[in-house]
Every structure is written in structure tokens, then in C-alpha cells.
């Protein structure tokens, strides 16, 4: 049975955040998470396996249990017989947060400390991020490369969802335009699953060298292309039977998001597929977006607005798409098809 913490208990955990991260990093580094995930494992077995003192390990595991990531069964007075099991997916989640290529480690390099302790002033507009701290949209080649590299780090859930739904998405598609598709990392993964597909990344011209590097690195030199342009200043290129907005629309106000979807509708071939992948607004997504919600308090030019999936499915229908559906995955996909014949 899932237990919801009281506000007071939650405040205690938040106040001890650095200590909680120390516990999680230690559990990952020692290999304890590898032993707990398949579970159940007894305290006595774990203490012997990792050569640690049982009573100290008992308290360490209490820390993990308090975080809601470990389940304990203690049938009697002998603590050595207490058994533990990690919640499914814990090791991968901890690796994603504190591992060597962790998303959170990448985020921490942004200058969020400029706001720390000064949020009240920032809310009033007295403290802001300068263009040297964070330019949105990126203004120089260096800023563009840095931003796209950072975005590629967080693609894990998107790649998983695209892989999971590959046969449903791409089996009858020839050409995909990945609008605002970063350095081509996602496009390369899509191509791994769709041998009959060609993908072009549509982005600002400054991104072209990054996509070229991805083409070379992934071996998709003949099927991964680049089209330079500005989706605000010009129509989207035509000739595609599939288009995708991945982590693009949430950065802009509602009217801009609608205009971009309208541009995709106009450019798509009849019967064409539009795929929208965003961090749709749920309690989990809000929690995982916490860093950006915090950091972008100091940035007025970036909306960064998490919306419910219904916003996008309704938008697709209003613009004219039919067969609108939501496909499952780590990040769900909102999809719609341009009718074969205009009504």
C-alpha cells in the first residue's frame, strides 16, 4: 500500500537533501542497489556480502526506506532476518541522477547559484540571468553547441518511447523532419529502428556542424540530413510524410505553439504524421522538471510551460489532424495524421 508522507515529514526529507543524496550515491557506488533490486535480501546476507556492520547497515537502510525507495519486512526481533527489496527501476533512476553521465550533474553546471538566496528579488525582476549566463534562444555558435549538447543528455526517456513505438510510427513512413531536432542524437536512434526511413533535422544553421558530427559518429551518413532554417521566419519545408516536435513546443506561449503546429500541418503531405513529445504535466514530470522551473525563474524569454497532454491532443484536432492518439512510454507521444483529402 502506498503511503503519502505528511507535509512535516516531507519537509524533513527536503531539509536533509544533501544527506539523502549521499546515501543514494553510496548505495549505488557500493553495489548495494544491485543486490536490493532483485530482492528480497536479508540484512544478514547483505552485511556479510558487503562486509559491513549489521546494525549500521540497518540504519543505512532506514534512510533508503524513508525516501520511499526500499521496502522492508521484519518478521521478528532479530534484525538480521529483516528483508529488503528496492522499488523496481531504482538503480537506473539513481544512475540517471548521480551517475557519471547524469542529467542532474549536467544541469548543475548552469549558474543557478546566481538565484540562490535571491529568489524574492528575482520574482520582482530585480535579479535575472544575463545572456552570458543563459541566452534564450542561444545567440552564438558556442551557446548553441552548449545548449544542444545539454539537451542530448536528457534524451533517454524520449529514445525509449520512440524505440518502443517504432513499428507503429515509422513502418509506413519514408521521410521524417525532426523540427528543432538538436544535434541529431534522437534522429540517429530513430534510424536505428527504422531502416526504411530518412530523417532530416531542421534547425538553425549554426547547428549544422553538430548534426554532421552525429552523422559521422553514428554511421548514418546516407540517411541523416540537415535542413537549416528558422521556423518563426519561414514556412516549414515540404516533402515529408512525418514530422516531429520533440521538447520544442513547451518553450513557447500557447499561440506560438499553435502556429508551429499549423505550419507542420500545412507542410506535411496528405496522410502525413505529426508526433509531439513533451514532458506532459504530471506530478512526476513536475518533480523531474524542478531544476528548470527553478533556474528559469531568472529568464523571461523562455516560457518553459509544462502542459497537460490534453492541450496537445485538442490542438491537433483543432488544427485539422485526425486519428489523434497518445502512445505510451517514458514520455508519451501525442500523434495525429493529416487527412488524405481536405474536408
TrEMBL record:
GO terms for molecular function: methyltransferase activity. Residues 171-321 form the O-methyltransferase C-terminal domain. One of its GO terms (biological process) is methylation. Keywords: Methyltransferase, S-adenosyl-L-methionine, Transferase. Pfam families: Methyltransf_2. InterPro entries: COMT-like (IPR016461), COMT_C (IPR001077), SAM-dependent_MTases_sf (IPR029063), WH-like_DNA-bd_sf (IPR036388), WH_DNA-bd_sf (IPR036390). It comes from the Bacteria. SUPFAM superfamilies: S-adenosyl-L-methionine-dependent methyltransferases, Winged helix' DNA-binding domain. This is Methyltransferase. It comes from Micromonospora aurantiaca. The lineage of its organism: Bacteria, Bacillati, Actinomycetota, Actinomycetes, Micromonosporales.
